[in-house]
Amino acid sequence: MADEPATEILDGAYRALCRHGYANLTLQDIAAEADTSKASIYYHFDSKHRVFAALLDKFFDRFTDRINSVEGDTPREQLDTLLQELLATDTDPAQREFRLVLLELKAQAPYNSVLQEHLTEFDEFLSEQLQEILAAGINSGEFEETIDPVSVAELLTTTICGAQTCHVVTNHSTDRIYTTMSRYIERQLLDNDHTQIAL
Amino acid sequence: MADEPATEILDGAYRALCRHGYANLTLQDIAAEADTSKASIYYHFDSKHRVFAALLDKFFDRFTDRINSVEGDTPREQLDTLLQELLATDTDPAQREFRLVLLELKAQAPYNSVLQEHLTEFDEFLSEQLQEILAAGINSGEFEETIDPVSVAELLTTTICGAQTCHVVTNHSTDRIYTTMSRYIERQLLDNDHTQIAL
Predict the structure, then answer these.
(1) Pick from A155, A148, A128: which is nearest to A68 by CA?
(2) CATH number of the domain residue B79 falls in
(3) Which residue range(s) make up the domain with A19?
């Protein structure tokens, strides 16, 4: 038995999700993967839905840590590192498996308001981070004054969502998307007069 | 009994998919919705997988008809009509239901190569159509010579995929995405010298 039975249950739930898919998943599957009993799961989480809500909370914490740790000396560099990070065609099977699980949960979201609320948080958080970077870049003069951080952040978030979805569904690389988005940023967002002066 | 039992079965399969979701769907559910027997489904389609492959073929035909019927006197107008069509936040419940079904099938695609092949066709077809419009616009001088139709078409396809996915998952409107993409096209793709001369 682990020191943290709740953590063991969540790890087991994730493994069970990868193995069986969301729709077919039973509490027994989770118990088997977590090497515990259904009673113990009920004791810690009340229901299967609460297990998934807690699992999504854990994913969300990991996601915000990842986004917050993006480095760069200027807003432009931060934006570039963030896009590289999110659009990397990850050859890491664990990362692909994670995206797969997330897509499956997304497909269930319209039927499940708890999942929907949790999943919406990911996009909202990303969009807010992008808005902050864009606003900082406008302030510093690196990005054009005329751009609207809200709508550009929404467009970038949407394209990232599309790239990650397509990558999982069709197994296509997202590398070219990163290149095309970088060109978009260069031509559309950067204040090229400022850049020329800065250079 | 309808004149076309196979069509009746496909219509029933679609209704069953909307009602039960993909993962839990049994041949019996399809038979019940199509008002037929499991034996009749086997006679026409061999297996549940073949029913879904035929259903996706039907969706694909409808999708290509829709894309091919996009109107516009110039490539720019055609591109705009196409984006409007695909990014419209459809209040039509039937259209939303269709996107929901498609997302659920997408989530299953990584586990099912037949679904994956069929779903990849949608994005490939859209990307090819966009490439043709972009190439025609470059030829006519309406779009900038320097743009690469392949990567721009891929970016647009990805963003449309993202917008449609997000719309279903979070119920967010895609109207603003259309506006931001139109601005992108105006600033990034149009040959503004040519436009000025043309005006």
Answers:
(1) A128
(2) 1.10.357.10
(3) 1-46
